[in-house]
Every structure is written in C-alpha cells, then in structure tokens.
Amino acid sequence: MSINTEHLLRCIQTLEKSYELIKTVDEGSIDYEMYRNSLVKSFEITLEQAGKLLKKRITPFFASNKAVDSLNFKDIFRNALKYSLITEEEVLRWMKYRDNRNNTAHDYGKAFAEETLTLIDDFLKDVKSLEKVIKNA
Q: What's residue 3's pLDDT?
C-alpha cells in the first residue's frame, strides 16, 4: 500500500519557510509575531498530519481497522516503535512535540510559542525522517 505524503511535504515546506522568515526580523516586531504565529500553526498542522499518516502506515500490523482507530496520538508512535519503524529516542521527541502542541492549543501565550521555536530544528529533522518511513510502506 502506497501512502501519499504530498500534503505532509507541503506542511513541512510551510513550516520551514515560516522558520526561515522569523530569523530575518526583529523579535518583538509585528512581523516577528506574525511569523511566530504562522510557525506555531504550521507546527501543529504538520504534527497532526504526521500522526494521521503514521496511523495509516501501522494499520497493516493490526487485525482490524477498528483496533487502529482506537489508538491515540502517542499510542500510534509507541506502536511505530514496537514495529521498528522509528527509534525510542524519536518516540520520546514525538511525545515532547505532542505535549508542546497540547500546551499551545490551550494557551497561545508568548512563552508557549517561544518554547515551540526551540523544538523546530529537531522537529524538522524528525518529521522529514518520518515522512520517508511513511512513504516507504
């Protein structure tokens, strides 16, 4: 089964562009806030898309679609580890990304947005690696 990752790749490109642009403006400026907001939203969308596609990737390991449908985001990544699709270190980082996303979803304050910025370098590496895992099903 081939899994289409085009939308995920577009999400990654959007995230990279927001990250690139935020580095070109002064912190505290309106442009900075605009790029930071774009970056946070792109992070959230990319994270969700990665989880959905990984869920499709692990589906063949389960007896039924119903069993897969009952998995939450973190369970999807735990199962990806179980089936040797990703490493334990990657799973731990994905858990951290998810926790950050949950925090930003409930409090769009500056502190949470800035915390997201600190995750982007690792997140971009991990999501690009995961895209390859998903695509090479």
A: 94
Domain extent, residue 117, equals 6-135
Exposed, middle or buried by CB within 10 Å (0-12, 13-18, 19+), for 57?
buried
For range 107-129, the mean pLDDT: 85
**Confidence at residue 103, expressed as pLDDT on a 0 to 100 scale:** 67
52-59, long-range: CB within 8 Å, 24+ apart, which pairs? 53/3, 53/5, 53/8, 53/131, 53/134, 54/80, 54/85, 54/130, 54/133, 54/134, 56/1, 56/3, 56/134, 56/137, 57/3, 57/85, 57/133, 57/134, 57/137, 58/83, 58/85
Calpha distance 93→78 (Å, rounded)? 12
What is the reported pLDDT for 101? Answer: 80
pLDDT of residue 100: 87
Q: What is the pLDDT of residue 114?
A: 80
CATH code where residue 114 lies = 1.20.120.330
For the chain, how many structural domains are there in total? 1
In a domain, 1, yes or no: no
